Amino acid sequence: MDKNDILFFVNVMFNGPMSGEQYDGFWNSMTTSPIALRWHKSGSVNWSKQQEIQKLVVKQILEMMTRADEDVSVLLRATDTLGSFVDGSTDRIQLAANEHAIPILIGLFKLNGEKTELKRTVCDVLMIVGEATGMFQMMAAKNIIGSLCLCLRAENPGRELEIGVVRLLLRLAQEARVYGQIVNEGMMSPLFRVIERNSSIKEVTMTVSTILADVSAFARKCKLDISPFVDSKCCRGQVLVLAATCHAQDAAVVDCTFRFFVNVSNNPVNLPHLINSETIEGLLSLYVLAGGTGYLAELAGHLVHGKSVNTITGYIGIAIEILCRVIPSSDVWRDETVEICNFVREMLLATDGADIVLNCGGKDLLEILHTYLAGPDVETSSGGAL
């Protein structure tokens, strides 16, 4: 199998009539032909020769992928073939990268029209390419975030493309630390739309919640005001709360959701469309459903600090409900239970707080406290006593 054989196979694959069976056998023909097997057994094909063959194949495939005027089915086949060729081989991935495969792949995101299947395939291939060291960083340097944002901003991106984009975005965030780019490209608003459209899908909720939590942590650490980058029409706190409530049994989803709100509560400018009484009450309800989260103490400190008790009566009512349920059933109080008690006590001391607490079930709580705290001191989970 010489250079002409390689070119023949690639050209026939893309330009000539080819049945599905012929297409499926393409790579087998490349690697298991009698000539190739004889070369392999005899050792007559050295490493440099193999590299030359692989380079020719990659160049031919990439050449087809740069023809934007080609039928989308040809572009799809070329992209899928590239993924199959580099899958499982870091050497082939590096070879493809050296031939500028990454900017060519990213360029396919910018093609006019929806072309959702093609763009979803590009996401999958880039995930494969990312298995080699440094590839995600290379993608970030080519501003892949802006291209992914274009995909999500499409009028009807489709569920499969959205899933492909957020999977790739999570890997980029973890490997290349592209949090600043996510903020600057205005990616947070499309992510809210993705989670709103796909809230019933656990993977989407988990992936998007993780990205948003990590981005908000980055902004908090940098003291970055994210208010110019979150559209008040689509970036509503209740969207995340409702999505997390659908998957309250998953501790990771719940923790990411609470972590996001703790971080944005420290934003230099208030974000009323994200943090409001409805969101706060929803978060505490989520806490009840999920059976606890380590971020409740921070929420009590950040989300309700300085707010009028009249605006968070639902939050107070749920807090009292939790205490009425937990205190009779446990001899050892978790630290979060202590934090809720401290929160209720803080509300009692606020203006109009006593009346609000009593109207939200405070009388029942008082009776329970008299009944269950009349004896010896109650031990907390940290070893102290109340």
TrEMBL record:
InterPro entries the UniProt entry points to: ARM-like, ARM-type_fold
Source domain of life: Eukaryota
The protein, known as: Uncharacterized protein
Biological source species: Phytophthora kernoviae
